[in-house]
Structures are given as structure tokens and as C-alpha cells.
Amino acid sequence: METSIVGVGVSISDRFRTVVEEKTARIQTLAPRAQRLEIKVTHRAYRNGRLPDETVELTLLGKGPVIRAEAVDPDKFAALDMALDKLAEQLRRAKEKRIDGRHHPRGAHYEKGSGALAGIDVQPASVDVLHAVATGAIPVQEDEEEAYSPVVIRTKNFDPEWMTVEEAVDRMELVGHDFFLFVDARTDHPSVVYRRKGWDYGVIALTTAAAPPAEEELAS
Questions:
Q1: What range(s) does the Sigma 54 modulation/S30EA ribosomal protein C-terminal domain occupy (predicted)?
Q2: Which residues of the chain carry a pLDDT beneath 70?
Q3: Cα-flanking dihedrals φ and ψ of residue 179, to 5°?
Q4: What is the DSSP code string of 19-69?
């Protein structure tokens, strides 16, 4: 795996390059198909008396989605460690999802042995039922007042859950969905976290605050 290091407002020392070479070996183990790791170190100084900090951004390129991670710390070596931990965690989760996907495929699939459709909550009608409908033995009810629509909208209702954005992301990864609906504990706004390309996450929130939980829920 090729590694490139770029410094913005800071020089890259030989010691830092050596540490990068030593600590990125585990990334190669977790992502053997990775072709290139780009490391960007940015030094930021502030005029309001705030101490300067170092931002380390990692971008892993290869066959598959681009994976990014970054961390900020006054010490660029500490920021590097934190960014590598984040990148390793994303790679570990991606590997577990691939393994789980092979063992537990999602979506509908046909089981040859039983002739059933697995992974979907619809079962095909039997030959007898199809014949009865075709011959009129089973009348087909038509409601002229209700407009036909080929789109079936399924509705699910859940009780609101107050949590932080970080907790919502963890919950979304736990259930394996691409989005998760929750109430932001910091703002009381109904919000949705969702997965973006490159293992980034986004948050969409409504400006209207959610109603507080009932007293009996708090008591329980």
C-alpha cells in the first residue's frame, strides 16, 4: 500500500514519517486490497488566544468505497493515533457487514427445496387459488370508489426515543439500516441520521421540538 503525507502549515519530520509507517501496518492488515493511504496534516493557529491544533485527515483508496477519518489534537502524533483508530473501526465494521451479508443475505430469495420465497413477507398463491380466481369460483371484489394505485405504502409507528447523534449512529449500525429516526437529546428536535458515501454520516432535523415523554414513561 502506497502512503503519501502532505503538511499544510507544518513541516513533516522524518520521525513522523517513521511513526506513520509503523502504525499504518494494521490498516494494511484490515484492508489488504487498499492501494493508497493519503495523510494530510494541517496546522491551525488562532488569534483569540486559543492554543493551536493539528488536524490529521486520512483517506484510504482502493477497490471499493473511499474511506475517510480525521481527528484534531494539539499534538499531531495523538491526532494521528485517534484518526487511525477511527479508520480501523470503520474497516472492522465494513468487514463484519460483508461477512454477515454472506451468511445472512438480505432481500427475497427462492428456496428450491420448499418452493417458498424467503426474506419477504409475501407468499405466492397456490395453483388451486389461481385457477379458482380465473374461473370465477372466487369472485374478485372491485371497489370503483377507491382509486387504484400500484404503490403499496407500509406504515410503522414507533415511540420516540431521546438520544444523542452519536448514539443514533451506533443504533443505526447495530440494526444494519441506512437511516435511523430519533429525537435529539440536545435540541429536542425530531432528527434522522443517515449513511452517506465513503462511510460518512449526515443528520436531518426538524425545527419543531418534540413533545416531552409522559410522566408514567419517566417513572418507569
A1: 149-203
A2: 98-125, 138-152, 198-199, 213-220
A3: -155, 165
A4: HHHHHTHHHHHH-TTEEEEEEEEEEE--SSSPPPEEEEEEEEEESS--EEE
Instruction: Assess contact for 189 and 183: CB atoms under 8 A.
Output: yes
Q: Please report the pLDDT score of residue 201 as a whole number.
A: 84
Architecture of domain 2-101: 2-Layer Sandwich (3.30)
Domain 162-205 in this protein, CATH class? alpha beta
Q: Do domains 2-101 and 162-205 have the same CATH topology?
A: no
Torsion of CA 105, 107, 110, 113, to 10 degrees: 50
Looking at this protein, which amino acid is placed at residue 157?
A: N
Q: Do 67 and 90 touch, CB atoms closer than 8 A?
A: yes
- So where are the chain's domains? 2-101, 162-205
What are the tens digits of pLDDT across the range 21-55? 988 888 888 888 888 999 999 998 888 778 889 99
